[in-house]
Each structure stands twice: as structure tokens, then as C-alpha cells.
Amino acid sequence: MLNVLFVGIALMIGTTVVSAQGTVKKTAQERADMHTKHMTKALALTPEQVSKVAELNLGVANKNEVVRNDANMTPDRKKEFVKGNLDGRKVHLQLILTPEQFAKFEQNEAKKIENKAAKKAKKKNTIQPNVEIMEEL
């Protein structure tokens, strides 16, 4: 019985450590590198394109980080600025990518938005209060 208790405690501690590690925020450089690597693979970028995209992604990530850390801005205003930064990124990407690569980029972005919306809808639908219990109280 004591062994079961120790195993249970170890599992709780392990779960806490893993979940805490998952919430560590990435730096702007890490986010830019992640986006660049993903785009390099998904769009088959040339070495010249990789360097330009990396520079662009880092610039956008730095701007977004400044916006996110600005305590004087409302959340809506922050979203507006970040959206503007991402829209500006798209304009610059059109100059760097071939038309085929840019079309694929746009498709990938549309899929991301679709998946995010589906995930949000699923999350919203799964967290329903139990009306029967609420009525009993």
C-alpha cells in the first residue's frame, strides 16, 4: 500500500513538472526560428529566401513581443496591432516568395485559422454546465 502511495505522489509531481514546462513562453527569437523552420519545410524555400524570411520573422516577432508586453494597451488594441504586424508580414512575404509559394502559404494560413476555430468551438461545446445539478442546488 505504501508503494502505491509513493507511485501516486511521484506521478502527481511528474505531471506538475511537465505541465509547468509546457507553459514556458518562447522568446521572440525562438518564435521566429520556429516559423522560419516551418516555412522552409512547407514552402521549399531557397537559401536566399530562408535568410530573408528569417529576418522578416524576427522583426515581426520582436514587434509583437513589445506589443504583448505593453501594460498600457488594452487586449483589443494589442490584437489589432499584432494583426497589423502579421498583415505587414504577408505584404513582405509576397516580395520574397514565388507566386506558387505564396499561394501555398495562404492555404496553410487558412488551414491554421480553420483548425483554431474548430478547436475553440470544440472546447466551447465540451464545457457545458450540468443543468440538472445546478437545478438541484
Question: Your description of this structure?
Answer:
This protein is an all-alpha fold. The chain has one domain. It contains 6 helices and no strands. It has helices spanning 2-22, 28-43, 47-68, 75-96, 99-126, 131-136. The protein starts with a helix and ends with a helix. The mean pLDDT is 84.
Give me some keywords for this one.
mainly alpha; 137 residues; 84% helix
State the gist of this model:
Helices cover about 85% and strands about 0% of the residues. The chain has about 140 residues and is an all-alpha fold.
Mean pLDDT across all residues, rounded? 84
Question: Any idea what the radius of gyration is?
Answer: 21 Å
The number of helices is: 6
Strand content: under 5%
* Largest beta-sheet characterization: none
β-strand number? 0
Shape type: globular
List the helices and strands and how they pair.
Elements lengths: L1 H21 L5 H16 L3 H22 L6 H22 L2 H28 L4 H6 L1
Helix pairs in contact: 2-3, 3-4
